[in-house]
Design a protein that fits this description.
Order of helices and strands: HEHEHEHHEEHHEEEEEEE
Number of strands: 12
Shape: elongated
Structural class: alpha+beta
Oligomer: single chain
Number of domains: 2
Number of helices: 7
Largest sheet: 5 strands, mixed
Strand order of the largest sheet: 2-1-3-4-5
Helix content: 25-40%
Distance between the termini: 89 Å
Length: 307
């Protein structure tokens, strides 16, 4: 009878563990793959450094990995890579590089957007409930100890990704991703993180080898999925969302009523006046607005990009 009772208890415990260990649909989250590039993006660091309290690294590396795997954006480096570029340009300026190295100004690609990762809430209940505790005590021995070690761990993270237009400074959208997980583990915990996990482990920071790191990563993947979906409502060309850059007049010139030097001037303009192009052009003449709101035409030979 005792053997029958032990076998029955063992069956109940293992079936419960199998049911809880079964992956939910959320655990099968996939990084979105885009058929076209939505623009260039730079990843900015969060200001509050929330990751330190969880003994994790900067999440920027995780976001960069997600972005690169998705193909939705071209990633521009504004961190260590940019510092190395500056050093290379200094070498070029000091005539240290070989002829034809072709490193100079006007080559860098502008960021269309900034992505700012943040974490709103994180909750963990590492205590949970010991599924097999009572049964393990009844069975005893090494196998009973293993059953007594089956515990549930509840983890939850709410991640935010803010997308800001690099030209206008407008926050285009804020995407949220919440991930909740109840994990069943035997001592070292459930394994299996897939190919993405290998790349994530290489990036470091504890996001591949800690439970809370994995949950936060999955919350960011959900947020990124939501961000890409929301971007369906944005313009295909992010440059179109921003006005043309201002120009500065090099010397005194008339603001003409027509793109013709013989046309009636609207008013005279002083050297250094800021001009705001409307986008209309006729030969060398650009239609511009001056600071007081007057609109007219000025030769493009008379101004340069305001800096």
């Amino acid at each position: 009878m005792r053997l029958i009772a032990v076998a029955a208890a063992l069956s109940v415990a293992l079936s419960a563990g199998t049911a809880l260990a079964r992956k939910t649909p959320e655990e099968n989250l996939e990084i979105p793959m885009c058929p076209r590039v939505l623009g260039t993006v730079a990843i900015k660091d969060s200001q509050n450094e929330w990751w330190r309290q969880y003994n994790l690294g900067n999440p920027a590396a995780v976001i960069k990995l997600i972005v690169m795997k998705s193909g939705c954006f071209q990633l521009v480096d504004r961190g260590q890579g940019m510092q190395m570029m500056k050093e290379e340009r200094d070498l070029m300026g000091g005539d240290e590089l070989q002829r034809g190295s072709d490193i100079g100004k006007g080559q860098m690609v502008a960021a269309d957007y900034f992505i700012l990762p943040d974490l709103v809430t994180q909750d963990s209940n590492a205590g949970g409930s010991a599924i097999g505790a009572g049964i393990g005590g009844a069975i005893g021995g090494g196998f009973g100890a293993m059953l007594g070690g089956i515990k549930t761990k509840k983890l939850e993270a709410q991640a935010l990704l803010t997308l800001t237009n690099a030209r206008t400074g407008v926050q285009e959208l804020i995407a949220e991703g919440t991930y909740k997980k109840t994990d069943v583990s035997f001592g070292l915990g459930a394994g299996g993180w897939g190919g993405f996990g290998a790349a994530l482990a290489a990036a470091g920071g504890g996001y591949a080898d800690t439970d809370i790191g994995k949950v936060i990563t999955l919350a960011y993947i959900k947020a990124y999925n939501n961000m890409v979906v929301q971007m369906g409502g944005l313009t295909d060309n992010p440059k179109m969302a921003a006005p043309l850059p201002a120009q500065r007049l090099l010397e005194p010139a008339p603001l003409l009523s027509q793109p013709d030097p013989a046309s009636q001037p609207v008013r005279g303009l002083r050297a250094g006046t800021l001009l705001y192009p409307t986008g209309n052009k006729s030969g060398l003449y650009w239609e511009v607005d001056e600071p007081n709101g007057e609109r007219g035409w000025v030769s493009s030979e008379m101004f340069e990009l305001a800096k």
